[in-house]
Amino acid sequence: MKGEAGHMLHNEKSKQEGHIWGSMRRTAFILGSGLLSFVAFWNSVTWHLQRFWGASGYFWQAQWERLLTTFEGKEWILFFIGWRDLVSQGDGSKQRVNSEIS
Fold first, then answer.
1. DSSP states of 42-93 as a string?
2. CB 71 within 8 A of CB 77
3. Per-residue confidence of the chain (102 residues) as pLDDT tens digits?
4. What is the rounded CA–CA span in Å between residue 70 and residue 84?
5. Are 71 and 78 in contact (CB under 8 A)?
6. Do 68 and 79 contact (CB within 8 A), yes or no?
7. Taking phi first (over 0 means left), then psi (-120 to 50 degrees means alpha), and beta for anything else, what does residue 74 get?
8. What is the C-alpha separation between 77 and 83, in angstroms, rounded?
């Protein structure tokens, strides 16, 4: 009697292990397929963006050169204009936060 019970437990245990390994294989297949699809999609998007920016890169370079010509090549003027705008936006947000708290 004890031998039969031990044999039944052993069979159930091996069936459960087979089920676990099957689940692990299915999970690995699904995750692997998803990862492969994601990488292929990402490479495709990157390729299209490189084609787009490669074509329009000359346009943006020309705009930057026009801006530098306008300020006679003095990049520090552009730095201070951008810095001043950034600081003034930061001050406004602090005032809004302080008024909301009060």
1. HHHHHHHHHHHHHHHHHHHHHHHHHHHHHTTT-HHHHHHHHHHHHHHHHHHH
2. yes
3. 455 555 556 666 677 777 888 899 999 999 999 999 999 999 999 888 888 777 666 777 888 888 888 888 778 887 777 767 666 766 555 454 444 454
4. 19
5. yes
6. no
7. beta
8. 10
Q: What is the DSSP letter of 16?
A: H
Token pair of 74 as six digits: 């003095």
Residue type, 14: S
Tokens of 86: 């950034």
**What is the Cβ-side half-sphere exposure of residue 65, based on CA atoms within 13 angstroms?**
6
- Count, residues in the chain: 102
Predicted confidence at residue 3, as pLDDT, reads 53
